[in-house]
Amino acid sequence: MAISFNSCSDDNDDVQSPDNIVGKLRVSELVIVGLDQILVENLDLQLNECEKKMTLEVFENGTYIEKDYEYNALLTECLLYDQVNGTWENLGNSIYKMSDLDTPNIKVTFEDNKFIAEYTDTYEEISYTIKMIFIAEEDVVPDPIIGNWKLVQEFENGVEVELSTCDLMETFEFLEDGFFLETEFEDDETSNDCIESEVKTRIWKNIGNSTYILYKIDDDSEQEVKITFGNNTMTVELTIDEEGVVYSAKLIFNRVT
User: Fold this and answer.
1) I need a surface site. Which of 78, 119, 216, 240 has the fewest CB within 10 A?
2) What are the distances in angstroms from CA 122 to CA 1, 7, 125, 126, 133?
């Protein structure tokens, strides 16, 4: 489900303008229309941060370059795994012909700085529509979660938890590629020092509406959390189930400069 495209320019009867498709874009959203939820309940339809690095650069000479990225959990890196060098042609009526794609003819519409590529496909003999939404690369805004954060407060069921000196040293570093590093510290009873434990590498994904999913690579588990930002603070709210005991937790972090 890969494609890519760009921003709009005004038509001019006297000057030959480049086709609106010309430019460089980044994918921002995937929309599926026409599939019953039962059929897709086991499919992840939300683009992760690594997949959002996908770009397509379209040139006036009728060629394009598409670059696709995917997680490499072993190397804990977001890597370029495929590059498509193809050709394109404007067939009129918002239809473009793109070579080297499974679906050669694509309907393309432009809204402000958004480029929407639409095509049909089938799943278990059911026809559905795929919409890939792109924005101009220069308009990409970094996710507010990116950066270094240090824990300053914690609440369980609305009651503040007293944090130790070692707890207050816990940090999270969120990277643009969709990985984050969790660093915890444990109290050494012998020396009374805080000993840094092994840094854990995780994966994060913004699925919209202040909702993020945090993945643990080692055991393939995930946690959906609500995250809000304000004045260099990050508030993480989640529900935790420990052996049948369910409670709410809220953690507050300060951005580390």
Assistant:
1) 240
2) 12, 29, 6, 5, 20
Residue 130's contacts (CB-CB under 8 Å, 6 or more residues apart) are: 1, 30, 31, 32, 33, 118, 119, 120, 121
Instruction: Please enumerate in sequence order all residues whose Cβ is within 8 A of that of 16, keeping only pairs 6 or more positions apart, or say none.
Output: none
Residues linked to residue 168 through DSSP beta bridges, in sequence order: none
Q: With a threshold of 0.85, does the pTM exceed it?
A: no
pLDDT-wise least confident of 87-101, 102-116, 163-177, 234-248: 102-116
| Cross-strand bridge partners of residue 227 | 236
> What 8-state DSSP symbol labels residue 161?
P
Helix, coil or strand: residue 52: helix
Cβ proximity of 203 and 193 under 8 Å: no
